[in-house]
Design goal:
64% of the residues lie in helices and 11% in strands. By secondary structure, it is of the alpha+beta class. It has 2 domains: 229 residues, Rhopdopsin 7-helix transmembrane proteins (Up-down Bundle); 181 residues, Heat Shock Protein 90 (2-Layer Sandwich), CATH 3.30.565. The strands form 3 sheets. The chain has a 5-stranded mixed β-sheet with strand order 4-6-7-9-8. Strand 6 and strand 7 form a beta hairpin. Helix 1 runs antiparallel to helix 2. The longest helix is centred in the middle third of the chain and has 42 residues. The protein is elongated, with a radius of gyration of 34 Å.
Length: 437
């Protein structure tokens, strides 16, 4: 029986060491979590690693024979108990931090500190008495009649943390509550088992499992927040783009309408309507937080190109082939690509620009292809197109897991391909436009 217990104790301690080192490595490699959180888990997993190392050393020293090994066993057991006791007050601090409370001035923190200090005093007293536990000169560990007294402060610490969690549950996310419940309850259960089953060190694996559960749940929670922040930043970049509409485009459009009125009033009305639709879609994008039906983005693009075709009559030719419109994309996705093609492709020094927009369904999802016969997109161009495309790629990835690819056409010009995955392409409460030319 003893051999089986020894094997279980060593195996659980070694597993715990692997878990704690893994926690340290993952924490060091994580870049999206808060700086305070990274520093906390660095200290937390370092203490946990030290605790398990001394636990392993004490297990080894107790199995060896020698005249002075009881001293090594005493030291290992002392530091094992010391480091293990430091984890619960640290969790009190982290719980208060997650709840948005200044832990330095909180009653729970002071109570936690007092309980830990009581435990530390008892641990020191234990080294000079046999009432709690002792290690004989034969290197044999024996519990004393007051051994349960040493476990009272840690148990009270765990209960204190559970009460603090209950009190501040409304300030925590569901994932945080689940993580704290596990790391508070699991070591408590393991400690009670260890009190009842002499020789079985279950608290080691319970503490490590709870720590890893807390760590990855907190990382998951912070990753979700990071994604939400990045999505909001992407939306703000799109909003800034709307606010940074080229003033000369508005001015030139208004002047085109002005000169059209006496020549072709009906055409001037149509240009005014298209320009109004373009502006409406631009400013509507400011308040959009999620994806929009592709049909809306297509309408926005059509309105923009209709205005530009009047301005650049005879120099801009547009073709639409869009039978597939039942999917969603981030606002201001297609229109900026088309605008970039017009901006760089229409010039008195260049041949007339032909631009095509087509959509199709593929095995991967919905595909949007924009092609033009302009001068192409060179690396020597200004930084703004590169930045705009990088922002667009980020928004596509964050908001609908889409991808964007830009490449030169064999016959000259540029080809831009956007792919929206199947799961996003299948959502489409929008009306469908007929594909046309």
């Amino acid at each position: 029986m003893t051999g089986w217990i020894d094997f279980v104790n060593f195996a659980t301690a070694f597993s715990g060491l692997v878990v704690s080192v893994l926690g340290l490595l993952v924490n060091a490699a994580t870049t999206y979590s808060e700086r305070w959180t990274r520093r906390f888990f660095t200290v937390f997993f370092s203490i946990l690693t030290a605790y398990i190392i001394f636990d392993l050393l004490s297990q080894i020293s107790f199995k060896l024979s020698g005249s002075q090994l009881w001293i090594a066993s005493t030291l290992c057991l002392f530091f094992e108990s010391l480091f293990s006791s430091m984890l619960m007050p640290m969790l009190t601090i982290y719980l208060l931090h997650c709840a948005g409370i200044r832990w330095q001035r909180n009653t729970a923190f002071y109570c936690s500190g007092v309980l830990w200090l009581i435990y530390f005093v008892l641990l020191v007293i234990t080294q000079f008495t046999t009432a709690i536990y002792t290690i004989t000169e034969e290197n044999v560990y024996l519990r004393g009649p007051l051994y349960p007294l040493l476990l009272v402060p840690p148990v009270l610490l765990m209960l204190l943390n559970l009460l603090t969690l209950l009190k501040n549950r409304k300030a925590l996310s569901r994932r945080q509550i689940q993580a704290f419940l596990v790391i508070f309850a699991l070591p408590l259960v393991c400690m009670l088992i260890q009190m009842c089953v002499y020789g079985l060190l279950t608290i080691v694996i319970g503490t490590c499992a709870g720590a890893l559960f807390l760590f990855f749940h907190i990382l998951h929670d912070q990753f979700d927040r990071y994604i939400a922040q990045e999505t909001e930043l992407a939306r703000q970049r799109a909003s800034n783009r709307v606010l940074q509409m080229r003033p000369h485009f508005i001015y030139n459009t208004m002047m085109s309408i002005y000169y059209l009125i006496p020549q072709d009033a009906e055409k001037a009305q149509q240009v005014t309507l298209n320009f109004t639709n373009y502006l409406r879609n631009n400013f509507t994008a400011l308040v959009r937080e999620g994806t929009v039906p592709f049909a809306e983005e297509l309408e926005h693009t059509r309105a923009y190109l209709a205005v530009e075709q009047v301005r650049f009559e005879g120099r801009l030719f547009v073709e639409f082939d869009t039978p597939c419109t039942l999917f969603r994309i981030p606002p201001l996705t297609l229109q900026p690509i088309v605008e970039n093609a017009v901006k760089h492709g229409v010039s008195p020094d260049l041949a007339p620009l032909s631009l095509s927009v087509l959509t199709r369904e593929t095995g991967a999802g919905a595909e949007i292809i924009v092609e033009d016969t302009g001068p192409g997109f060179a690396a020597a161009d200004s930084d703004s197109p590169h930045i705009a495309l990088a922002n667009l790629r980020q928004r596509l990835d964050l908001m609908c897991h889409g991808t964007l690819k830009i490449e030169p056409r064999p016959a000259g010009g540029t080809k831009v391909t956007i792919i929206i995955p199947v799961r996003d392409a299948q959502q489409a409460p929008a009306p469908q436009f007929d594909g046309g030319k």
